[in-house]
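Structure tokens please, single chain.
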Amino acid sequence: MERFKKKNIWIVVFIGAMIFALFANEVGFVKFISRISNINKPLFLLVILFNFLNILAFTITWRYLIPAKIGIYKLFTFFMAGTFINNITPTFGTGGEPVKAMLLGKETGTSKAECFAGVVSQRMLNMFPFLVIGGLGVGLLFSRSEVKLETWQIIGLSFSILLAFSLFGMIIYFYVKKDKLSSFVHSMIRFLAPFIGLVKKGFDHRAYVDAVERSINSFHGGLKNISHNRNGVLKATLLSFLGWTFDIMAIYAVFLSMGEPDIHISILIITYSFSMMSGWLPLFLPGGLGIVDVTMAGLFMFGGVSAETAMVAAWLYRLVNYWFNTVLGGFYLWLSLKPK
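Here you go.
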């Protein structure tokens, strides 16, 4: 496990270095470094502040969805530890969720299934505000009379929106239809059995049927308990809206620190939403690293931002949103696993 984590970290560092080299080469190394060093430092602190408020909002959101009482700081450390795993493993941005559940269960003595139900519920709940904000951005874009989209751009927007809503719909469907979730999980295990067999000799998916069924029943029961907490779900939803808003404000603060305050709100929202969604697609890239950076820079350019400003802005935002959070998360994971 330790060797696996170290290998992943080196892969992440290598990809990060390649992105920096790509952006610096496109802009010009001297000009790229000059733009970064000449940002307004006090205004850039706003990026870090909004990033922190984003994480804090999501941490409190999670607190409303778990059965156990636990302090905000301790939950914050678990959230960041999970973020570290999410950012260094190519698992659709969900590799850290079991880690969050494990740390929470260990701290509170709550069952692992209930803890995992709380973690997944937060991810499910966060999807709704994200899609609403993304839809708002698309509406604002089309409300601008000067915007003329090509056919391929309209197709791209439509495909991304359809993909996002399909994923959200699938999550809701499996939540409502436990038997369908069970069937889907068993089908996936059968499909993956030959590949798992390459790693674990003698693997027989039939031996795991009962264990999987028990886990699904326990997990689904945890979700049902959360759904009865309407007041908590409502508060969590409002905080989720706030969390996404803080993250978009962090991007705007990047432009402010660069002396570029005139970017339209629709471009900010669409660039943010579609960049985050792009990170879901390449399962082999940890934390969407590379694809999110390039997509963000490209969408800024599509919105009328100069190539130089777009690449520097995308890199600065990811410096905080990805790299700062990954390092902080790694520290908190180490702290959480450290023998007491």
